[in-house]
């Protein structure tokens, strides 16, 4: 994705543009023949965010990209929910990146456990996540949102809510 040093806008066949910041998913990477070995020979790591938290964050990012200045979460989320194709990548379902051949990839970590992901990948017991995109796992987002907007987001992200529940054994935000 665009947070990595991989030249995402230079992968033939993905129709990637700087403006849309389109991310390739694992199925795209396999289909393009970018792997040296079958995907089954790799350890595939992914991160899932709590769906409502992710949508609120994505809504604010989308407003920023579109030069909008919402007053609050309600205004940002209402704007993002009203968008039609092309849907910005920050608003797309996470299952698009966390499934391969219709099944979850083999190692999915909740976003609030990024340090555990780093420890697993690096094999270092005290690894801390430090990457260009701020470690959101160590802060609390304002989750205040109108009940109707909350229901609309959770309905739109139903597949993400189910995957999140299966990975974390806990419900997505519902209050």
Q: How would you explain this protein's 3D organization?
A:
The protein is mainly alpha-helical. It is 37% helix and 7% strand. It is built from 7 helices and 4 strands, in the order H-E-H-H-H-E-E-E-H-H-H. The chain has helices at 26-31, 51-65, 73-81, 95-98, 114-122, 147-156, 158-168, and strands spanning 45-48, 99-100, 103-104, 107-110. Strand 2 (99-100) and strand 3 (103-104) form a beta hairpin. The protein is globular. The two termini are 31 Å apart.
Kindly list the characteristics that best describe this protein.
175 residues, two-stranded antiparallel sheet, 7 helices, 37% helix, disordered N terminus, two-stranded parallel sheet, mainly alpha
